[in-house]
Write a structure and sequence with these properties.
This protein is α+β, with helices and mostly antiparallel strands. The protein has helices spanning 3-13, 55-64, 126-133, 198-210, 216-225; strands at residues 24-25, 34-35, 40-41, 91-100, 138-141, 158-169, 183-191, 242-248. The strands form two sheets. It has a six-stranded mixed beta sheet with strand order 2-8-4-7-6-5, covered by helices on one side. A two-stranded antiparallel ribbon has the order 1-3. The chain starts with a helix and ends in a 6-residue tail after the last strand.
Length: 254
């Protein structure tokens, strides 16, 4: 259980529910991965005679007890009993931040440390990466692009990638150090769900293409092999640059 999830559970108990509250998170992330936005659902049973919480009241109360935690509640909605934060999601969007132009990790701006990845070798061949990303779109067996864990035997490796974008971005206060020639780029992926460490492996493979270690065609070949052991060693992107951007739902169902 991630630390912010533990803090969320503790904050919820201060609402004085009749039965303990359990949060159901839409997406769990590896240690070192960030979330710009995540979703969860919970059931609150109050004492007899007490009215249900109003949405704004719930947000204020939870945030009051989360003051020491690196997490904030932004919105709350009353939903149907059939809603589930994880299984009702239509899609999830992840963003990975790359920093180009660094010849040594000490050149990463201090405010960007642990918030991006600066691959070795300086600048990347972005057009080649964009050509390679095209092979990831659509429905495929992504066995080569997942790490093995205890859930592997029970989860299908077939996933549908709905979107892959590679575009220039900006860093925190980066306009103050434009003279350094650093470039921030974002890789954005959208799918209904992803396999364990799939995004980090896809990013790592695309970066290898940008470095000239792989060709765009190699991405297609890795997909066709369907074997996680075929993934290039040490190519997986580190967790620091990965952000869960959003979780999308059907508004009517929510």
């Amino acid at each position: 259980m991630i630390p912010s999830h533990v803090g969320l559970q503790k904050a919820a108990q201060n609402l004085k529910p009749v039965v303990p509250i359990k949060f159901h998170i839409s997406s769990r992330t590896d240690a070192g991965v960030h979330a710009l936005c995540n979703s969860a659902h919970l059931d609150i049973q109050r004492a007899t005679g007490k009215p249900p919480f109003h949405e704004r009241e719930l947000i204020h109360s939870l945030n009051y007890h989360l003051k020491s935690e690196p997490i904030r509640i932004l919105n709350a909605y009353r939903v149907a009993n059939s809603f589930h934060a994880r299984f009702s999601a239509l899609s999830r969007t992840y963003v990975y931040r790359l920093l180009m132009g660094c010849t040594h990790h000490s050149e990463i701006p201090v405010f960007e440390r642990d918030l991006c990845w600066a691959p070795g070798g300086g600048y990347l061949n972005v057009p080649a990466m964009q050509d390679a990303a095209w092979f990831l779109l659509g429905t495929h067996d992504f066995s080569t692009f997942r790490s093995l864990n205890s859930e592997t035997p029970f989860r299908s490796p077939v996933r549908t990638i709905l979107q892959v974008d590679i575009r220039p971005s900006s860093g925190f206060l980066s306009h103050h150090y434009e003279y350094r020639g650093l470039e921030f780029w974002e890789l954005e992926f959208r799918s209904r769900s992803f396999l364990y460490r799939q995004v980090r492996r896809m990013v790592g493979a695309l970066v290898a293409v940008g470095q000239g270690k792989l060709t765009p065609r190699h991405i297609k070949e890795l997909l066709e092999i369907k074997d996680s052991r075929a993934f290039p060693p040490h190519a997986m992107a580190p967790p620091s640059g990965l952000f869960l951007k959003s979780v999308e739902y059907n508004e009517a169902g929510r």
